């Protein structure tokens, strides 16, 4: 952990990119750190303000086309997130926020819009909207359980050689080529929108482990596990 | 009212037959099926049925059904009013409502936000009422900036008079292409969807209030509406000066006179709905001293706020479908009572439960909380993370049976609410 005392979470642009439950990822990280006795300090960065460089884990969520374009422009102009990543901070980028991390994404009319280039991916608009439950088998190298969540997007994302897929989809669309999301270094991008970490506490712990640089003791996961089992049973073919 | 052409008469007659069949077979209240059959036979029917009537269309994310009911009650002071009282708020429901009250000179129609542009075009309504816009059922409802943009296009260049909530920046933006607007300060407790300017994307500043991060102390707080001014920091878009205002338990009318509302419907949101209804009534020429007594007679709307009873347990039913709605429902809760929460994720609810994470449940700490509904585990985890102790119930009936005899409050989302009503009585 880079900070003196507390784990520093930075939620980027909740005023632009927080369409549906994105706050859940912040709350889950806070809870899982605090239950292990790790103090947490959370900063919400409004889009008019600079992104601080000293955070440990950064989060950016989903949103509509116009706010997505505005957020991309501002992040590029601001440069704070780039400096934080260069310093070794971790990042969870969800849905519209995931697409922004690439080189390009599709705008309101499908036109290519510049991303901020933190991930070697490029996105465009797909034929139809992918809406529904998503299940994926995570990259074994990550050591986390099956991914479960809800997707709601029109994006198609091509992964470059500089990233690895986060998971292979078994239910749902994800990137559109049988994979879902991606990761590189300490950056995770995913189409599991909104509170992705509420359905995947393993992903939350992965981010915490990266930020702290040590293995975490187990905690009581009763409610996380019960929800996961119910959702997986509801959507997986028997 | 003018005679409908023969084909349209046949279409409405067939539609009414189907509606009756739907009701007697217990499939529904008949308002949608009847309208659908009519629309197939005569696509232009809505236009013809709306013709020559004085119409108000009511749209918002929350409070459509209640406000429609309040305006209807007020306008009944002037004459018969056609209305879709049961929330069938798409064109089929509008046809059904207007055809079942053919001779009513007035019409008050609740309109789904997405259908509003089409219904404005078709009906040529003279009055449009816009209350609030916030995130709602994103898996099927779409995006609200885009929605407000479509409202702007639909209102531009028409002779429509709009009644709009000036405290909601997105509604203000959506309404401000209209030829004339009555601005109402109806408040906006839920602000998470309007911290950015819809015109230019710049930050919106609110007087007496710095940006309040969601989920922190102070988010969702209600300021005194007369102070709740807002303006974009980067362009000229700002709150228009309202001529009506909700001021705590009273309304301030355009003459500056203060009237205590004293309505029976509970909560801040319903006082806001009442102020909007009074402003709308005045646009129809009905003065506040005649409209307000009518609003005070409304006790419950389509089952909302009614109490169901079993074995001495009296459960008051509150409907909340999205984060802004839950915030308003919390305001209505009796803090001394236990509360049962029931959440489903069927089609009409939205199949995605992510929105639960936008609701700040911490206000429920310290009172007994019971969790039921088809997606009770989503809610259970949400409450666990919020540090709100709760008990999981197999069903609403079981949660109710677990109460001591006496009163309990219930908040449920759409299909969960309907399930409770059909199991415990549909009395309105």
From TrEMBL, chain A:
Positions annotated as active site in the UniProt record: 95, 193
Every CobB/CobQ-like glutamine amidotransferase domain range: 9-200
Documented EC number(s): 6.3.5.13, 3.5.1.2
Keyword field contains Ligase: yes
Source organism superkingdom: Bacteria
UniProt entry tagged with the keyword Cell wall biogenesis/degradation: yes
Key words, A-Z: Cell shape, Cell wall biogenesis/degradation, Glutamine amidotransferase, Hydrolase, Ligase, Peptidoglycan synthesis
Catalyses which reaction(s): L-glutamine + H2O = L-glutamate + NH4(+); beta-D-GlcNAc-(1->4)-Mur2Ac(oyl-L-Ala-gamma-D-Glu-L-Lys-D-Ala-D-Ala)-di-trans,octa-cis-undecaprenyl diphosphate + L-glutamine + ATP + H2O = beta-D-GlcNAc-(1->4)-Mur2Ac(oyl-L-Ala-D-isoglutaminyl-L-Lys-D-Ala-D-Ala)-di-trans,octa-cis-undecaprenyl diphosphate + L-glutamate + ADP + phosphate + H(+)
Leader peptide range in chain numbering: none
Pathway as given in its UniProt record: Cell wall biogenesis; peptidoglycan biosynthesis
Binding-site residues for substrate, renumbered to this chain: 129
Subunit structure, as described in the record: Forms a heterodimer with MurT.
Family named by the database record: Belongs to the CobB/CobQ family. GatD subfamily.
Task performed by this protein: The lipid II isoglutaminyl synthase complex catalyzes the formation of alpha-D-isoglutamine in the cell wall lipid II stem peptide. The GatD subunit catalyzes the hydrolysis of glutamine to glutamate and ammonia. The resulting ammonia molecule is channeled to the active site of MurT.
Protein name: Lipid II isoglutaminyl synthase (glutamine-hydrolyzing) subunit GatD
TrEMBL record, chain B:
Protein name (database record): Lipid II isoglutaminyl synthase (glutamine-hydrolyzing) subunit MurT
Assembly and binders: Forms a heterodimer with GatD.
EC numbers: 6.3.5.13
Residue span, Mur ligase central domain: 61-172
PANTHER family (UniProt xref): LIPID II ISOGLUTAMINYL SYNTHASE (GLUTAMINE-HYDROLYZING) SUBUNIT MURT, MUR LIGASE FAMILY MEMBER
The protein's role, per its UniProt record: The lipid II isoglutaminyl synthase complex catalyzes the formation of alpha-D-isoglutamine in the cell wall lipid II stem peptide. The MurT subunit catalyzes the ATP-dependent amidation of D-glutamate residue of lipid II, converting it to an isoglutamine residue.
Sequence similarity: Belongs to the MurCDEF family. MurT subfamily.
Catalytic activities: beta-D-GlcNAc-(1->4)-Mur2Ac(oyl-L-Ala-gamma-D-O-P-Glu-L-Lys-D-Ala-D-Ala)-di-trans,octa-cis-undecaprenyl diphosphate + NH4(+) = beta-D-GlcNAc-(1->4)-Mur2Ac(oyl-L-Ala-D-isoglutaminyl-L-Lys-D-Ala-D-Ala)-di-trans,octa-cis-undecaprenyl diphosphate + phosphate + H(+); beta-D-GlcNAc-(1->4)-Mur2Ac(oyl-L-Ala-gamma-D-Glu-L-Lys-D-Ala-D-Ala)-di-trans,octa-cis-undecaprenyl diphosphate + ATP = beta-D-GlcNAc-(1->4)-Mur2Ac(oyl-L-Ala-gamma-D-O-P-Glu-L-Lys-D-Ala-D-Ala)-di-trans,octa-cis-undecaprenyl diphosphate + ADP; beta-D-GlcNAc-(1->4)-Mur2Ac(oyl-L-Ala-gamma-D-Glu-L-Lys-D-Ala-D-Ala)-di-trans,octa-cis-undecaprenyl diphosphate + L-glutamine + ATP + H2O = beta-D-GlcNAc-(1->4)-Mur2Ac(oyl-L-Ala-D-isoglutaminyl-L-Lys-D-Ala-D-Ala)-di-trans,octa-cis-undecaprenyl diphosphate + L-glutamate + ADP + phosphate + H(+)
Residues engaged in binding Zn(2+): 197, 200, 232, 235
Pfam family for this entry, one: Mur_ligase_M
Top EC category: ligase
Cleaved signal peptide residues: none
Record's keyword terms, sorted: ATP-binding, Cell shape, Cell wall biogenesis/degradation, Ligase, Metal-binding, Nucleotide-binding, Peptidoglycan synthesis, Zinc
Active site (record annotation): 352
InterPro entries listed in its UniProt record: Lipid_II_synth_MurT, Mur-like_cat_sf, Mur_ligase_cen, MurT_C
Pathway(s) the chain acts in: Cell wall biogenesis; peptidoglycan biosynthesis
Lipid II isoglutaminyl synthase (glutamine-hydrolyzing) subunit MurT C-terminal domain residues: 319-416
Organism, as annotated: Streptosporangium fragile
GO MF annotations, alphabetized: ligase activity
Superkingdom in the source lineage: Bacteria
């Amino acid at each position: 952990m880079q900070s003196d005392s507390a784990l520093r979470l930075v939620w980027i642009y909740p005023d632009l990119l927080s369409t549906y439950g994105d706050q859940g990822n912040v709350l889950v990280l806070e809870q899982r750190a605090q239950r292990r006795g790790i103090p947490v300090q959370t900063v919400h960065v409004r889009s008019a303000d600079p992104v601080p460089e000293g955070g440990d884990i950064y989060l950016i969520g989903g949103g509509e086309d116009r706010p997505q374009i505005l957020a991309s422009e501002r992040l590029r102009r601001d440069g704070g997130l780039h400096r934080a990543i260069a310093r070794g901070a971790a990042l969870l980028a969800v849905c519209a926020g995931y697409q922004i991390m690439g080189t390009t994404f599709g705008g309101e009319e499908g036109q290519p819009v510049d991303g901020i280039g933190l991930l070697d991916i490029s996105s465009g608009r797909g034929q139809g909207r992918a809406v529904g439950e998503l299940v994926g088998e995570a990259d074994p190298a990550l050591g986390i359980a099956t991914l479960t969540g809800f997707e709601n997007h029109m994006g198609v994302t091509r992964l470059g050689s500089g990233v690895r897929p986060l998971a292979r989809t078994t239910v749902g669309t994800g990137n559109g080529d049988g994979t879902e999301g991606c990761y590189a270094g300490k950056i995770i991008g995913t189409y599991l929108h909104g509170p992705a970490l509420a359905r995947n506490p393993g992903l939350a712990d992965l981010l915490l482990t990266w930020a702290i640089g040590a293995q975490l003791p187990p905690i009581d996961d009763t409610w996380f596990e019960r929800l996961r089992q119910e959702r997986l049973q509801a959507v997986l073919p028997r | 009212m003018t005679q409908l052409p023969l084909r349209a008469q046949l279409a409405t007659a067939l539609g009414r037959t189907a509606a009756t069949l739907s009701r007697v077979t217990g499939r529904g209240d008949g308002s949608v099926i009847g309208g659908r059959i009519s629309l197939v036979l005569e696509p232009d029917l809505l236009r013809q049925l709306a013709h020559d009537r004085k119409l108000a269309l009511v749209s918002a994310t929350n409070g459509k059904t209640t406000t429609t009911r309040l305006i209807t009650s007020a306008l009944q002071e002037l004459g018969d009013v056609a209305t879709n009282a049961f929330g069938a708020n798409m064109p089929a429901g509008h046809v059904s409502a207007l055809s079942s009250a053919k001779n009513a000179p007035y019409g008050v129609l609740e309109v789904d936000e997405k259908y509003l542009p089409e219904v404005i075009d078709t009906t040529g309504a003279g009055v449009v009422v816009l209350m609030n816009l916030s995130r709602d059922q994103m898996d099927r409802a779409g995006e609200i900036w885009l929605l407000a943009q479509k409202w702007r296009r639909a209102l531009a260049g028409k002779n429509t008079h709009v009644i709009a909530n000036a405290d909601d920046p997105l509604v203000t933006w959506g309404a401000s292409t209209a030829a004339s607007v009555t601005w109402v300060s109806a408040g906006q407790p839920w602000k998470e969807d309007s911290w950015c300017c819809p015109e230019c994307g710049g930050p919106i500043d609110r007087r007496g209030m710095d940006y309040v991060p969601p989920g922190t102390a102070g988010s969702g707080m209600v300021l005194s509406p007369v102070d709740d001014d807002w303006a974009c920091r980067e362009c000229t878009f700002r709150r228009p000066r309202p001529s009506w205002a909700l001021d705590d338990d009273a309304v301030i009318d355009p003459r500056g006179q203060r009237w205590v509302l004293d309505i029976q419907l509970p909560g801040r949101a319903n006082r806001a709905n009442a102020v909007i209804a009074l402003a709308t009534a005045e646009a129809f020429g009905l003065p506040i001293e005649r409209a307000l007594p009518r609003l005070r007679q409304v006790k419950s709307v389509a089952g909302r706020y009614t109490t169901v009873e079993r074995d001495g347990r009296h459960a008051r039913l509150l409907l909340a479908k999205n984060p802004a709605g839950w915030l308003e429902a919390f305001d209505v809760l009796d803090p001394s009572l236990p509360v049962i929460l029931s959440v489903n994720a069927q089609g009409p609810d939205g199949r995605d439960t992510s929105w639960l994470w936008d609701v700040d449940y911490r206000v429920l700490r310290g009172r007994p909380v019971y969790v039921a509904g088809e997606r009770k585990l989503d809610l259970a985890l949400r409450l666990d993370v919020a540090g709100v102790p709760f008990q999981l119930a197999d069903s609403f009936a079981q949660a109710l049976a677990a109460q001591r005899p006496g009163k309990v409050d219930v908040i449920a989302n759409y299909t969960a609410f309907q399930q409770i009503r059909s199991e415990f009585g549909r009395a309105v």
